[in-house]
Amino acid sequence: MAGKRDRVQVMAGLLLGVTALCSLTLLLAAGTSAVQTFAGAHTAIQATAAPQPLRGLTIAVDAGHGGYDGGAVGRVSGVAEKGLNLDVALHVQKLLLAHGADVVMTRTDDYALCDDDPPIRKKLQDMQRRAEIIRINDADMVISIHMNEYAGRSESGPQVFYREGCPAGRLLAGAIQEAMIRGLRPDKERTALGGDYYILTLGVPSVLVECGFLSNREEEARLMQEDYRRLAAQSIVQGVLDWQALKMEKPGALAAVDRSGEETGD
Ligand SMILES: [Zn+2]
To answer: How far is the CA of 87 from the centre of ligand 1 (A)?
Structure first.
């Protein structure tokens, strides 16, 4: 009987070995391709097996609005921008992590960062606290995720903004804008634009990505689809990868705006 049990154990050991080998082969095979797909970003094992071109970068991902502040509203569905932003932002986070970046999220659920009844404007306190999270974590880059709206319902297409006059932001925004056009194939192909947004003034390469227009019936329907939002997230991260792969000395960012004289809510 002992001999038989030994054989059974040997067989079990062999089977385990073969299974482990198969898994390893699968993982190795998935290593390079998994990184291109959202599915590849879900497990730590695949993330480790993937190339990590963003290692050493700390990237702040900012899901616009939240809590009391819903942001833009879908014309047809009534959906609030804040939830779509968070969904895209969480996809972007996973993909960036899979490519080796450290990621700082300004929010991870449906809340605003301001107090219920602050001594200053709620929106300003909310922005100050987002900025503070980004600053104390020493982020090298800021990606703020939003959905657009416009009075005219025909406007459509992803639109990436950078801080007006900031060469570093402009380069990054251009790379992400192009990647979104390639990835999402919008009817309207926009070019990156300079803009005046608080979140872009923290002294590092920064972009504000409007993934599409909730005021446009067709684009709203697309943005309501999870697959489309994943594709938007993939395209944003592809833009970061394209930027990272540029063989050039990248221009610096404009210095952070000095807000020391600004009223604080704390
Ligand atoms: Zn917004």
So the answer is: 14
